Amino acid sequence: MHELYREIELDAPCEAIWDFIATPRNLNALTPPELQFRIITDLPDTMHNGLTILYHIQVPIFGSHRWLTEIKHIREGISFVDEQRQGPYRFWYHYHEIQRLGPRRCRMVDRVTYALPLGPLGTFVHRLIVRNMLGTIFDYRHQKLLELYPPTDESAPEQPPVIAAARDG
Fold it and tell me: Which InterPro entries does the UniProt entry name for this protein (predicted)?
């Protein structure tokens, strides 16, 4: 099992960030264009427990995949999980959380626990390609969030994403 952890502090009310991430079609805005990400499912305006979403994604080197996720464990305004039901990973569990830091500031946390198929070959491919590829995808997401919710203090340097050491087990 592997884990990716990222957090970002955003100058926006938590309610605005929650409204953005609770709208499934907004995932397009946070996905790098080279993944040719396309939502196939008809989507509601906001997510709900048990919502399944079917995507098409083009993963460089690995080809085209259909990816089915289920939204679950929603704590309104605080957190939710998207869990892969079908797709390129043997296991994918993505926990999203919003933490209030002040009236107009919040922290968004992403914690992804995942495993690749193919046993030892999957472990090798993870070390060689997948770990860095996921890092690049979440770097893109970080940059897009900063564009959507730019820092209000122009003198503050942009914060790089917090990256915990990858845990491989």
Answer: START-like_dom_sf
Beta bridge partners of 124: none
Q: Within the chain, where are the H helices?
A: 14-21, 119-125, 131-148
Which are the contacts of 71, defined by CB distance < 8 A and separation ≥ 6?
Answer: 24, 47, 48, 49, 50, 51, 52, 53, 80, 81, 82
Residue type, 20: F
- Going by C-beta distance under 8 Å and a sequence separation of 6 or more, which residues neighbour residue 110? 4, 5, 6, 7, 94, 95, 96, 138, 141
| pTM as predicted | 0.86
Q: Which fold has domain 2-168?
A: Alpha-D-Glucose-1,6-Bisphosphate; Chain A, domain 4 (3.30.530)
The conformation of residue 126, written as its DSSP 8-state character, comes to I
Query: How does pLDDT run across 63-96, given as a tens digit for each residue?
Result: 888 999 999 999 999 999 999 999 989 999 999 9
CB 61, CB 129: distance < 8 Å: yes
Strands (E), the chain: 2-10, 38-39, 52-59, 63-75, 79-86, 91-102, 105-115, 167-168
Name residue, tokens 């009310």.
13
